[in-house]
Amino acid sequence: MNPKIWLSSPHMSGVEQTYIKEAFDTNWIAPLGPNVNGFESDLQSYLNEDRHVGALASGTSALHLSLIILGVSNGDEVICQSKTFSASANPIMYQGATPVFVDSEKDTWNMCPIQLEIAIKDRISKGKTPKAIIPVHLYGMPYKVDEIHKIAKSYNIPIVEDSAESLGSVYKGQNCGTFGDLSILSFNGNKIITTSGGGAIVTKTKEHKEQAIFLATQARDNAPHYQHSSIGYNYRMSNIVAGIGRGQMTILDSHVAKRRSNHELYRKTFRNIDKISFLLEPEGSFSNRWLSCILLDSKETREGLRLALEKENIESRPLWKPMHQQPIFKSAPSYLNGVSDDLFNRGLCLPSGSNLSDMELSRVTYAINTYFAL
Ligand SMILES: *Cc1c(COP(=O)(O)O)cnc(C)c1O
Fold it and tell me: How confident is the model over 2-15, as pLDDT tens digits?
């Protein structure tokens, strides 16, 4: 059997160990320290929009703290893109609030502005103005920022931008991860850069960052003893993990370039297979192409291809199953147009890692060409 080809696996630069060794040598083995500060400032410079970055234990914890900062609580409603990973929506439940799911449009596969406005109007008519909107740049493709933010602004609803998959993506010259009133990043094992596990909150004000760090470190009031007047969390990033992050920042741009070249190779190779289509970048959008996805002509073709790849020991995966189809969110209100259901049926993510060798890519393209030649 050929060795396994993964969808997206960690890819170290080698520099990570220097930062980790330094942490050991100086005994900064804690959820604070020079690597945490260094990683935050690396991210701030990279994002380049005068934002404040707080390094946290995960993207999920960053989303959770964002909702807390915006005052989301029991009985509130929060609008969330339906086509996403469950981590975008779970923190709404942590707060005892109700997720309201909004379907996608075909140009970016992300939150549909038309459905968003329908949803907001309908929720308001039912007596509840949504407390926040969570759009997602899925697979690195920027959502329709201008349209979505214009609607949010006109109803005065803050945006929590889920940029977990889109570090390195750009919309009209501005980096993804800087658009939200609050934004979040993830450095989980399969993301474009990884710290094994980790995330960050990106804020527009210093106060919001301070509030996030306060909550992430058990909400300790200013006193010589341990004094608490709000509920805290243990959500800070460790100094060891942040050392991996600093090493990863040195190769972020080359990871983006390699993932984009994987995508281009697939597009070029399959251009004559009319059962395969691709999501193109709309004018003004630059995707990090975190995962390369294809759309097949039918669910049957998609499933056949997935199984054929599995036989060759090549990992592939259907696109995110929309949240409105998930058993846990069965009773959540949803505003649907059929797009995310169709994408789920016909879409497939192909191996996309920045560490894929030419040989591995050849195995993937050969297996797909063979499947369609039969
Ligand atoms: C990975 C991911 C998250 C969660 O990030 P973690 O660091 O794994 O907690 C949230 N939203 C989306 C869209 C993601 O892909």
Answer: 999 999 999 999 99
Query: What is the chain's Cα-based Rg?
Result: 21
- Average pLDDT value for residue range 39-48: 97
Atom index in ligand 1 nearest the CA of residue 187 equals 7
How do residues 357-368 score in pLDDT, each as one tens digit? 999 999 999 999
Average pLDDT of span 170-199: 97
pLDDT at 1: 82
Q: What residues are in contact with ligand 1 under a 6 Å CB criterion?
A: 58-60, 84-85, 87-88, 136, 162, 164-165, 186, 188, 199
DSSP lists the bridge partners of residue 348 as 294, 318
Q: How far apart are CA 265 and CA 258, in angstroms?
A: 10
- Best probe residue, ligand 1, of 63, 186, 290 (max atoms within 8 Å of C-beta): 186
What one-character DSSP code corresponds to residue 230?
S
Task: Select from 60, 90, 160, 340 the residue to mutate for testing ligand 1; criterion: most ligand atoms less than 8 Å from CB.
Answer: 60
CB 44 within 8 A of CB 53: yes
Domains of the chain, first to last? 16-249 (3.40.640.10), 252-373 (3.90.1150.10)
Query: Are the beta carbons of 345 and 325 closer than 8 angstroms?
Result: no
> In this model, does residue 269 exceed pLDDT 80?
yes
How far is the centre of ligand 1, averaged over its atoms, from the C-alpha of 79 (Å)? 17
